[in-house]
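Run log // design_07
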């Protein structure tokens, strides 16, 4: 299941969609891969720290555009003190959807340990396939944009006008159009993450 945040985040809609999918589709919707990836870490959103995941851990995953980073700017494993807004927003979305754990490559893979990094990259299929849902941050051009509708990030304005006591509102473009025209859709890594979800 993919949660695509291109225009807005609607908590009730997403909760209902996850419930509907798991209740009505079961194994038909996705084949859960029961093996937990080796050396798998997640963010404990309540404690705001990276931990080693327990077997059977239910978590959300995040797919987003990193933006300009250097090896020095990545920081240490699990250093969430100065994380980008999209990570902070995704932590809040995870908690709002009644999940506790979130997987984010930048923080759950030791980016300064080449061996750990390669090991985790080889497990991307397991990581995204086992996620309960994937948050796709398709709005904005970098991780500081955040998720529309969360923590002050504005939603796309819907043009409207009042005429003789009636409200006329324009429809927004279909979300797939916004996603297909996003920076997120131009990246090979994010393409893989969307497919594996």
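design_07 sequence
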């Amino acid at each position: 299941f993919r949660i695509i945040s291109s225009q807005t985040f609607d908590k009730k809609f997403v909760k209902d969609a996850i419930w509907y999918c798991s209740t009505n589709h079961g194994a038909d919707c996705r084949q859960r891969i029961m093996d937990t990836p080796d050396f798998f870490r997640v963010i404990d959103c309540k404690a705001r720290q990276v931990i080693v995941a327990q077997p059977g851990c239910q978590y959300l995953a995040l797919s987003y555009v990193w933006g300009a980073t250097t090896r020095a700017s990545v920081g240490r494993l699990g250093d969430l003190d100065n994380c980008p807004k999209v990570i902070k927003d995704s932590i809040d979305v995870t908690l709002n959807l009644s999940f506790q754990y979130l997987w984010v490559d930048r923080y759950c893979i030791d980016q300064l340990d080449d061996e750990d990094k390669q090991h985790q990259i080889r497990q991307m299929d397991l990581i995204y396939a086992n996620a309960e849902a994937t948050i796709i941050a398709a709005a904005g051009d970098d991780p500081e944009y955040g998720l529309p509708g969360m923590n002050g990030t504005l939603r796309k304005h819907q043009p409207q006008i009042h005429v003789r006591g009636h409200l006329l509102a324009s429809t927004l473009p279909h979300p797939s159009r916004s996603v297909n025209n996003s920076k997120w859709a131009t990246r090979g890594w994010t393409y893989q993450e969307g497919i594996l979800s």
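Helices lie at 11-25, 71-74, 85-96, 105-108, 114-121, 124-130, 175-180, 188-196.
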